[in-house]
Amino acid sequence: MDWALIGASTIASQNMIGALRSQPGGVVRWVVSGSAEHVADYAARHNIPHSGTDIAFALADPEVDAVYISSTNEKHYGQALAAIAAGKHVLCEKPLAMTTGEAASMVEAAEKAGVVFATNHHLRCSGSHQAVRDLIRAGRVGTVLSVRVFHAVHLPESLQGWRIHSADAGGGVVPDITVHDADVVRFILGEDPQSVVAQTACSGMGQGVEDSAMSIWAMPSGAMVMSHESFTHPFAGSGLEVHGTEGSIFARGVMTQRPVGEIELVTAQGRETVPFSDHNLYHFGVAQFCAAVAGTGAPAASGLDGVKSLAVAQAVRDAAATGTRVTVNYGALK
Ligand code: NDP
What we know:
By secondary structure, this protein is of the alpha/beta class. It contains 10 helices and 15 strands. The strands form 2 sheets. The protein has a 9-stranded mixed beta sheet with strand order 14-13-12-11-7-10-9-8-15. A 6-stranded parallel beta sheet has the order 3-2-1-4-5-6, sandwiched between helices.
């Protein structure tokens, strides 16, 4: 599969170029970015043969099969629609768009065009999250009563740009991290939050956008979810806890881009350490995407997953802004 990168980004540089090239026949053919100087330097550093500032040239290249979009968030919508119109398969970064409505239009356009459209929610690609889901599915904790997500981190200095000062580019911890946590909860529980209450704050880093969020989500099953995200917590550590009538799962250090952390299951029989696969999260996601294009599988996170996880994040922001319980609006997509 020949790829065009839309966005000369950190995530592509650190994780995705390697992931795209890890697949059999995986070639990164183009990179497109808004800055001529930056994109030329980026292409040279990553050994990408074609680069430019006009997406149209990359999309007109018949050798390009698929596009990976990792520009800033406000650009995803227009770039994805252009790629879909050109008949390319699209793997798009989260949040899919600035609004759930735009994200839903992207999914609809891809369905009409008959191309694969997927969301790069990496956490559901990790062995740890898959092991937690499998424990729940196997009934090891009984009926799930509650979930607690700990995802308060310290945003590295190199990423303290648009994320902390530009609402226009889609900055803020809610579109950056809460959207991932929504995807995790939907993935492990297999159900979608119905309503949320929330509070957000600027706790030292955000300039005009929130850098911390706490929210509580009501699930259709009756389970309660508590979720905490931040850019300003250097020593908090991350984790995921699932508490049920027959057991509790403690997954520590697993809200990360790497296949690390530990999982413990506690039941009436005692404590057990749960093993999990340490495969690369991004390689897994790209492999699933390639299988979907080949017609032999499905994306790890579909376009609809991206829409729904964004809808939850949007509800968290709205609930914090209004101080009220907000029903999650998933729109008309099923
Ligand atoms: P970066 O800030 O590294 O890059 C995003 C864009 O900023 C680039 O595409 C480019 O814009 C512009 N840019 C960056 N560096 C320069 C430069 N030196 N000169 C000129 N322009 C520059 O973004 P991230 O990698 O942090 O995030 C990109 C997307 O990926 C976001 O949507 C984010 O939410 C998502 N993401 C997902 C992760 C995951 O694990 N799924 C992890 C991290 C991010 P342009 O190309 O438009 O000109």
